[in-house]
Amino acid sequence: MELRQLEYFVAVAEEHGLARAAERLRTTAEAVAELIGALEGDLGLRLLDPASPGHVRLTAAGERLLPEARAALAAAGRVRETAAGIAGGTDGLVRLGTSRAFSDRVYRALGVLALRRPRLRVRQERAPQEARLAAVLSGTFDAALVRAVRRVEGMVLYPVWTEPLLVALPAGHPLAASDELHPAQLAHLPLRLAPRAVNPAFHDLVTGALPHWTPGPPFTTLRATLDDLAGAAEPSWTVFHPVGPLPRDRRLAFRTLRAPRVPVSLAVRAGGLVPAVQALLEALTGTADPPAPVTRPAPPPVPLRTAPRQATVRTAPAPADAPGPP
């Protein structure tokens, strides 16, 4: 059974004749009769009976199948409409590889995307960075957010934003007095840095900004390293990506590293920037950093002006029995 057969059947039922249905379908009455006959043969039912010359009427079977045929054609129309929306990027699903550290930016971008393209859905898939890249290459993910990656074979990296690195050091260290630190200020303070094998891109980014860095105690996990750093007798420091709320430990100071900025990119398989992914990319690149609060100086006090003295008007005293003011 073909959709075209159902379309011809509905046209004949609504026009009550083969010739008028053929005119509506821009074909011949013979072609209409042939397809209706093929449909009746496929279903094993007679759908039409001749009523008068040039006219036909539905059989009982035809009357019962007519609403189903209309529903099938409507469903096919919705499939075509949805397919057109997917092809145009206004409908569909984007499977985005991400991590919890990107949540703030991603949710802001999704809010913008929901206003622009309400039928387009983005499903977030959390995974480690290497797994995200592998999933994009295999086609499991449509795109993935990655940090500090410069090149991946078979993929295109689209820059979306940059992030600062955060520094943790003892709260009592003299450098903790600065709100922002330059790498050169930290070069001679022992650095707890994860081995390159753990995260090559991050390791190369940090050591490239600190060519004369001083190796410190080993880096294990961020939480354990911060605990060790806070309790160590000898001062040291570590550096990491923004990962959410920082621990509340008065022994530690967290500061922003002035440079380098960490590039965050949307990784897409070569040739995979379909309209839906393009729409997501535009929403992500449009997410700006939240504006820092602006402290405005209080306006200078306005001096009070003394009102000019007015002439005193003397009135005659009222009689003792005069009424007072209302």
Report on the structure:
The protein is 38% helix and 22% strand. Mean pLDDT is 87; it is low at 291-302 and 306-326. It is rod-shaped and about 105 Å long. It is an alpha/beta fold and 326 residues long.
Question: Can you lay out the helices and strands and say which pair or pack?
Answer:
Blueprint: H1 3-15, H2 18-25, H3 29-43, E1 48-52, E2 55-58, H4 60-88, E3 91-98, H5 103-116, E4 119-126, H6 129-138, E5 143-147, E6 155-170, E7 180-181, H7 183-186, E8 191-192, H8 200-209, H9 222-231, E9 237-240, E10 252-269, H10 275-285
Parallel strand pairs: 3-4, 3-5, 7-10, 8-9
Antiparallel strand pairs: 1-2, 5-10, 6-9, 6-10
Helix pairs in contact: 1-2, 1-3, 1-4, 2-3, 5-10
**SSE succession:** HHHEEHEHEHEEEHEHHEEH
Query: Strand portion, in percent?
Result: 15-25%
What does the overall shape look like?
rod-shaped
- The span between the termini is 98 Å
Low-confidence stretches: 291-302, 306-326
Radius of gyration, whole Å: 37 Å
Oligomer: single chain
Class from helix and strand fractions: alpha/beta
Mean pLDDT: 87
Number of helices: 10
Percent in helix: 25-40%
**Main sheet?**
8 strands, mixed
For the secondary structure, the number of strands is 10
